[in-house]
Amino acid sequence: MIWETVRLSLRSIRRNVLRSFLTLLGIVIGVAAVIAMLTIGSGTTAKVKADISKLGSNLLVVRSGRPAGPGGPGGLDQVVRPLAEKDLAALVAHLSGARAISPASQKQVRVIFGTESLTSGVTGTDSAYLDARDWKLVSGRPFSDSETRSGTGVCLIGETVRQQFFGAGDPESEIIRVNRTSCKIIGLLEPKGYTGFGQDQDNVVLMPLHAYQRRIAGNRDIDNIYIAADDRTPTSELQPRVEDILRDARRITPDRESDFAIRDMTQIADAMASATTTMTGMLGAVAGVSLLVGGIGIMNIMLVSVTERTREIGIRLAIGAHEKHILIQFLVEATVLSLLGGIIGILIGLALAGLAAVTLTIPFAPSPAVILLAVGFSALIGMVFGFFPALRGARLDPIDALRHE
Amino acid sequence: MAAGATLITFDKVWKSYGQGEAKVHALAGVDLAIRRGEFVAIMGPSGSGKSTAMNIIGCLDTPTAGTYSFMGIDAGRLDRNRRAMLRNLYVGFVFQGYNLLARTTAAENVELPLIYRGVAARERRDLAMQALAEVGLVGREHHTPAELSGGQQQRVAIARAIVTRPTLLVADEPTGNLDTARTHEIMELLTRLNTELGLTIAMVTHEADVADYAERTIRFLDGHVASDSRKLEIAQP
Prior knowledge:
Chain A has 405 residues and is an alpha+beta fold. Chain A is built from 13 helices and 10 strands. In chain B, strand 1 (6-17) and strand 2 form a beta hairpin.
C-alpha cells in the first residue's frame, strides 16, 4: 500500500515536471545553502586551525606592555618597558618545559637587490627561532651562535623574497641591502603560504638579533620572545612559569601588575576556530530560514494540487478510499517532493562547497551527519507542510468532490 | 441471500438542506424497496430528488431523517469510513462524465478499487484484465482515457465498477455524453451484466428510451416517488 502510494506520487510528480521543479526549487536552494555553508564553514575552521598552528604549535608569545584587558595594552598611564636581553637570559636559565626560546624584533623594511626592491618583514632573532616556529630551511644553514652573538650581516630569506630578486636562480651567498646595511644570504626558508588573514608569511628576511638591533632598529629592545613548549608540557602549564620568571627578572613587586603579556597561540587557535564555528552556525541558520520558505512553497503547491485533483479525490472516495488513504497519498507526495528537493540540494550544496574549497584553498570537509540531517529535515518539511493540504483533501465530501469541475 | 430478496429499503427517508425559512427538502419521506437482481431506472426533472436518492442508495450520502438500509445494514447511520468500506465491497459507480483518472492507463483505472481493498499487484492485474475483457476492451488495457473514445471510456468505467464483483451498480446518466449508437451499446452491456451476473442496477436517466432498458422505472417529483412502474413482460415469440 505504501509502496503503491510512493509510486503514485512519483507519477504525479513526473506528470507536472515543470511545476514540480519550481516547487522543489525552494527546498533545493535552502538545502544547498545550508549544506554549502556548513561544509565551507567546517573547512574554514580546519584552515584557521591549521594556519595558527603554522605559527608554531604549543607556542607562547611574550611581548611588553600590559596584558590585553580593560584600558588596552600599554595604556597611557604607564611607560612601556620593552623586553630586554636579561629577560631572555632569565628564561633560558630558569624555564623548564620549553623546547625552544627565541627573541624576535621586527619591522617592515625596504630590501634591495640590484635594481629590484621589496618591502619585507625583517626580523632580528637567533638560531632557536626556526625551532620555536616549526620552520625549516630548504637550503643553506641557520645562524651560528657566534654570528648571533656578534651580529654578523647574514640573513635567511623567505620564498617571496627569493622569487622577487632571483627568479629561478640560486640566492645563496648573494648580498642584499636591508635598509642601509648589507647582508649575505646564507639560507632559504621553507614556504609557509598565506595566513587566513591574507598575510604573506614568506615575505620575510631573518637576521641575527644584534645585527638587527644595531643596524635597523637602533636600540637594544626585544619585541617578542617566542617560547615553544616541549611535548610533555601543555602551554597552560608553561604560561605561569614564564610569568613568574619574567616578573622576577623585571623586578615587579607582587602588588603591581605585569608590564608584559603572554599570548597562548593554542588558545588563540581555539578561539578563532570557535568564532568561525559560531559564524558558520549563524549563516547556516540564515540559510535554514530559506528552507522554511521552501516548505511554504510545498504547502502552496500541495493546496493547488488538492484543488486541481478534487475530482480525482472524489472518484477515489466513491470507489472506497478511506480518509487515511487520501491523507497518506498527498502526504507521501509532499514528502517525496521535498525529499527529492533535499537530495538535489545536497548535491548542489556539496558541489558549491567543493568549488569554494578549490578557490579559497580550504579543505573540502563534507559532514555525513549534516547530510543525513538535511535529508531528514527536508522529509520532515514535506510532512509538516504537506499535512494541512492533505487533510483538506481527505476531508472532502465525495459528492461535492465529484461535482467539482 | 437469494436473488429476489430485498437489497435496498428507504423507510420515510428525508433529506433536507438549509435552516429555518430557507429549508429545502430534497427528499420528503420517501418509502422505497429494490430487490436483488433488479434493473431500476430512476427518472424525474432536476430538483426532483432523484440525484439525492441515488447518492443515498450508493452510500455516498446519508438521510437527514428516516432509515436507509442496504443489505440489511443501517447504512444511513454509518460514519464516512464505514460507508467507504461498504462502497468498496458492494457498490460500483458509473458516472455521466466517466470519471477516469487522466494520464492513467485503462488497466490502472480498473485496478484502483482493488488497491483500496489491499489486493496484491499480480492478482489486481489479472482481475482488471478479466473485467476489461467482460466489457469488450481487450487490447486497450494500456491506453489512457485521452486515447479512447467516449464509449470506450465508459466501458473502462464499467469495468472499474464491476472488477470488485459488487452487489449493486449505481449509474448516474451513464449515456448522457454518448451518441445513439454508443448509448445502445452501453445499455446492451449493462443489460447483459444485469442478466448474466445478476448485478442489481440503479440508474438515473432522463431519457425515456434509455429507461426502457430497465425493467422498472421510478419517477421522482418534488422529493416524492411520483410513480413506480414495471415493464410488462412481453411474451417471447
